[in-house]
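pasting input
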Amino acid sequence: DSGVTQTPKHLITATGQRVTLRCSPRSGDLSVYWYQQSLDQGLQFLIQYYNGEERAKGNILERFSAQQFPDLHSELNLSSLELGDSALYFCASTQGGKAYNEQFFGPGTRLTVL
Amino acid sequence: AQTVTQSQPEMSVQEAETVTLSCTYDTSESDYYLFWYKQPPSRQMILVIRQEAYKQQNATENRFSVNFQKAAKSFSLKISDSQLGDAAMYFCAYRSGSGNTGKLIFGQGTTLQVKP
């Protein structure tokens, strides 16, 4: 158990809908990363937050947005869902925001868009 | 931009034997970190081993070791005395040592099958 929690574990929804994925980092970790794992794109970085502020952005679609709240949990919002958004979404956390901090991954949320 | 390439989509090894998974990367940076992650059927991402680019000595963790060739930009993972529990997908990953982000850049993954 990495100490990072993600809810829900599974999510099935229809095209055009909006969903929210939630991540609670390990106690004391200030930085949260979101990654997407799909058959087409592999594992790719979406976005990073550090202590409530956006730190880095990767290949995140405009239909996707994220935020980190004062209690440090983070949410990834996916809207106008398409079939291609079906993927496993991981959250990872670290104590700091830089390279030497080990990232601990949550169990992921499996999103299926029908 | 940095890239990571794993050219072996699938590998297999006999139980108790040794297997090597390949990874190459491309970067113009001198300060970076390299990782191998294991993803078993449960889908949990588990850190196997990490290497700091400034260290010449290859990292080892029990049965897992790496062959880090900085000039060749190669970072292979050797698994000795393979066990059934080693069956998983393995990802090579790169992380820049500069800047304010620790984002990981992953390779495409190698699925390792362990035969009893």
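fyi The CA atoms of residues 86 and 114 of chain A lie 9 Å apart.
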